[in-house]
Automatic annotation (TrEMBL):
Official protein name in the record: UTP--glucose-1-phosphate uridylyltransferase
Protein family membership: Belongs to the UDPGP type 2 family.
Pfam families in the cross-refs: NTP_transferase
GO molecular function, one term: UTP:glucose-1-phosphate uridylyltransferase activity
Keyword Transmembrane: no
Catalyzed chemical reaction(s): alpha-D-glucose 1-phosphate + UTP + H(+) = UDP-alpha-D-glucose + diphosphate
GO biological process: UDP-alpha-D-glucose metabolic process
SUPFAM superfamilies linked: Nucleotide-diphospho-sugar transferases
Keyword Nucleotidyltransferase included in the entry's annotation: yes
Keywords recorded for this protein, A-Z: Nucleotidyltransferase, Transferase
InterPro entries from the UniProt entry: GalU_uridylyltTrfase_bac/arc, NTP_transferase_dom, Nucleotide-diphossugar_trans
Organism of provenance: Candidatus Magasanikbacteria bacterium GW2011_GWA2_37_8
Amino acid sequence: MSKVLTAVIPAGGHGTRFLPASKSIPKEMFPIGEKPVIYHVVEEVVKAGITNIIFVVAHHKHSIEDFFSPNEEFEDYLKLQGKKDKTKMLVDISNMAEFTFVYSKPPYGNGAPIAAVEHLIKDEPFVLVWGDEFVINKGVPRVRQCIDAFETYGKSVVSAFEIKEAERRQLYGMAKLKSISKTDDTVQEILDIVEKPKPGKEPSVYATHGAYVLTPKIFEALKHTKPDKKGELWLTDMLDYVQKKEGLIAKIIKDADYLDCGNPLFYLLSQIDYAIKKSDYSEEVFDYVKKLGACKID
């Protein structure tokens, strides 16, 4: 079985929900703490053992490539200022992995990045993670857990999270699951994925979303997947094909915080979540939020 060494990170959307901020700054470059969202994503996959990262970006998102590329002029300036720690920080960013940038083109949709990277990946398994969401946990990184499940079962794997708030389940693809292990209830077979189910129609409380380990079967699925009426390709349709042909595994991620930064509300909530749990200012932020909780909103 081939090792999983490559990750694909799509960041091709226009971020229209974040306008006007996203007119010049990609939403993936919005900060969570002192780091852009997409930097947190890269940290997660690198911790999982990934050495090659392919970004699928829109033509106007040059700032993502700039961020992960060396900036010798800025590094020299920091050296002259005696800021060795800051210099090392910048050098380390460009050395985190081998970075490749591919520009997105029609057809669009969240399945389009599969078509964009096929010529680079060919017949190897790979990780797919979105550029506007990430997970923080104390134990084994989410992506590493998915890779471990792939290495055990030899099938494509999708991370799954319990969505406790019923009203949020209609925002995700909710999975119908079947137990396949007597000793590990976090690994289950996916029988079906229901996209954005109506309230009360969810097949489970688990959303299959966020991180994927995909076999080359996904490229076969691409050839059998047609764009929808809007001309967009959808990953769910491809996963449905993979599930029918070789099976699909859900890896349920527990004891972790899933930070979805893909829309303005969730981005703000993720800011607060991260600030309280992971930042250097956790106590100060927590105290401030408590004070706000005691105030009345006009």
